[in-house]
Automatic annotation (TrEMBL):
<dbReference type="GO" id="GO:0016832">
    <property type="term" value="F:aldehyde-lyase activity"/>
</dbReference>
<keyword id="KW-0479">Metal-binding</keyword>
<feature type="binding site">
    <location>
        <begin position="270"/>
        <end position="273"/>
    </location>
    <ligand>
        <name>dihydroxyacetone phosphate</name>
    </ligand>
</feature>
<protein>
    <submittedName>
        <fullName>Fructose-bisphosphate aldolase</fullName>
    </submittedName>
</protein>
<feature type="binding site">
    <location>
        <position position="119"/>
    </location>
    <ligand>
        <name>Zn(2+) 2</name>
    </ligand>
</feature>
<feature type="binding site">
    <location>
        <position position="98"/>
    </location>
    <ligand>
        <name>Zn(2+) 1</name>
    </ligand>
</feature>
<feature type="binding site">
    <location>
        <begin position="228"/>
        <end position="230"/>
    </location>
    <ligand>
        <name>dihydroxyacetone phosphate</name>
    </ligand>
</feature>
<keyword id="KW-0862">Zinc</keyword>
<feature type="binding site">
    <location>
        <position position="193"/>
    </location>
    <ligand>
        <name>Zn(2+) 1</name>
    </ligand>
</feature>
<feature type="binding site">
    <location>
        <position position="227"/>
    </location>
    <ligand>
        <name>Zn(2+) 1</name>
    </ligand>
</feature>
<feature type="active site" description="Proton donor">
    <location>
        <position position="97"/>
    </location>
</feature>
<feature type="binding site">
    <location>
        <position position="149"/>
    </location>
    <ligand>
        <name>Zn(2+) 2</name>
    </ligand>
</feature>
<dbReference type="GO" id="GO:0008270">
    <property type="term" value="F:zinc ion binding"/>
</dbReference>
<dbReference type="GO" id="GO:0005975">
    <property type="term" value="P:carbohydrate metabolic process"/>
</dbReference>
<feature type="binding site">
    <location>
        <position position="194"/>
    </location>
    <ligand>
        <name>dihydroxyacetone phosphate</name>
    </ligand>
</feature>
Length: 324
């Protein structure tokens, strides 16, 4: 069944565990993510980043999506999640990742998203509060949960690039949660988006601990979210490079660090890069086996070539690589 984010994270908080939240960058990934969670008998959180919505709406260049592309993409992924998730025995959430403005939020909700993130973390504090409140006012009456963000993660984050991080201030977090009434809060405590997070990153666990304690002291409650949490498996990076790729300086967050963040108060762990790496490896493997496919310059062209040859692997199993 399709549900908002809040009940899923409430259960995680009560049970003292965290839910993985997995980015889908193409519609065909919805089925895979839902089936994997059904096997594990776990609730599933699928998330489409704001610009991924544009891509899933048919826009070939990820970066320049218009609102029209986003509306089409939200509907495409929304329909797929309904198709595979509505009759599923597990709770399924479709969550907008790093929504940039009201238009993105409205497009996502119109397409069937049950939860939205509004990322005002690059705005001045008061403006972030104002934008997030506006989103909560729109989303909550529609039964849609809201995630906000406070603090800046270093690295590439959809539409935002930050050279260095600013950790979340626990007292500002209290103020933010009280004024916005968000259901979940993304914090900055040492994680980072993308495949180059730095060697042996140690997470600042005292930050979620302090945020939790400060919230509890004020009688407030809100689930905490860890973005930029991919583990960047060495063997996948090696396989990509053996297949002609050139990914340097690839380091993720270790499983040990992620596991230790859960008792510190983290209830949602976002993963995008790890899946993109697997997709990149699969694309390179396919091109190595069928070099004729490389003649096509666009992803759409590759799909077309694959479809023209019925003996080829199902093109929907392959997704566009984004970096590499
Ligand atoms: O938040 C948007 C995307 O998840 C950023 O992904 O850092 O894996 O490129 P990336
Ligand atoms: P990674 O780049 O570590 O996968 O982070 C994903 C994320 O935070 C999506 O919002
Ligand atoms: Na941010
Ligand atoms: Zn993120």
């Amino acid at each position: 069944m399709l549900v908002p984010l809040k009940p899923v994270l409430d259960a995680a908080r009560k049970g003292g565990y965290a839910q993985g939240a997995f980015n889908v960058n193409a519609v065909c990934q919805a089925k895979a993510v839902i089936e994997a969670h059904e096997t594990l008998r776990s609730a599933a959180i699928l998330q489409g980043a704001d610009l991924a919505n544009a891509f899933m709406g048919g826009r070939a260049d990820f970066a320049n999506g218009t609102v029209k592309d986003k509306i089409a993409g939200a509907k495409n992924i929304g329909d797929a999640v309904k198709k595979y998730g509505e009759d599923s025995p597990i709770p399924v959430v479709l969550h907008l990742d790093h929504g940039r403005d009201m238009e993105s939020v409205k497009a996502a909700i119109a397409g069937g998203y049950t939860s939205v993130m509004i990322d005002g973390s690059s705005l001045p504090f008061e403006e972030n509060i104002e934008l997030t409140r506006e989103v909560v006012k729109y989303a909550h009456p529609r039964g849609v949960s809201v995630e906000g963000e406070l603090g800046v993660l270093a690295g590439v984050e959809d539409h935002v690039f930050a050279a260095s991080s600013t950790y979340t201030n626990p007292l500002s977090a209290v103020d933010f949660v009280r004024k916005t009434k968000v259901d979940a809060l993304a914090i900055s405590y040492g994680t980072m988006h993308g495949p180059s997070k730095g060697k042996d990153v140690k997470l600042r666990r005292e930050i979620p601990i302090a945020v939790r304690e400060c919230l509890a002291h004020e009688g407030l409650d809100c689930a905490l979210v860890s973005h930029g949490s991919s583990t960047v498996p060495r063997y996948i990076v090696d396989e990509i490079n053996e297949l002609g790729g050139n990914i340097q300086n690839a380091y993720g967050i270790s499983l040990t660090e992620l596991k230790a963040a859960i008792p510190a108060g983290i209830n949602k762990i976002n993963i995008d890069t790890d899946i993109r790496l697997a997709v990149t490896r699969n694309m390179r493997e396919l091109f190595a086996k069928r070099p004729e496919l490389q003649k096509s310059e666009s992803i759409g062209g590759v799909y077309k070539l694959l479809l023209e040859h019925p003996e080829n692997p199902d093109p929907r199993a392959f997704l566009p690589p984004v970096f590499d």
